[in-house]
Write a structure and sequence with these properties.
It is a single chain. The protein is 37% helix and 25% strand. With 169 residues, it is an alpha+beta fold. The radius of gyration is 17 Å and the shape is globular. About 9% of the residues have low confidence.
Amino acid sequence: MKRAIAFTLLAACSAMAFAADTLSLESGLLHVMQLKKGTTERTGTSGQAIRAYQHAGLVSKTPRQRFDYTDYYLLDQPVPFMGHELVLIEEEYRSKYIGCCASPGVGITVKVHGSLKNLQQFARANRCTLTDHVDFAHALREVAIKNKVPKAHYASLSCRERDAERDES
């Protein structure tokens, strides 16, 4: 009986610690996606947020794929993000400027659970681009990632340099 109680308490504590960790991870990722007040610059760097997910063992130490200035990190297990399920983190970078195309910043894809209202509000407030009804399996194939994904409602949020600089019309 005592072992069962101890095991139950340990499981509950582990679940609470995981929830606290995922809230901290989510907060860090949201931070790098936000704009500095009055600018088109993001408040942090995507590398810091990705390293936190790596340290937590939720994404691999190296990107699953590297394609057109973008690193792709698939989540190894379900992680909450703004009420949805985070499935992919993208980091676009410019190691050296070659004249076009690269747009540094971060993007995510979530499996949608319920309303997108919170993501829409965040995108509007931080000049990010929200794309609803993403064909996630097709998007992965486009960048040569072979992975089976369940059929579901997916949405992507891009918070890159080009998103912040676009017209607000």
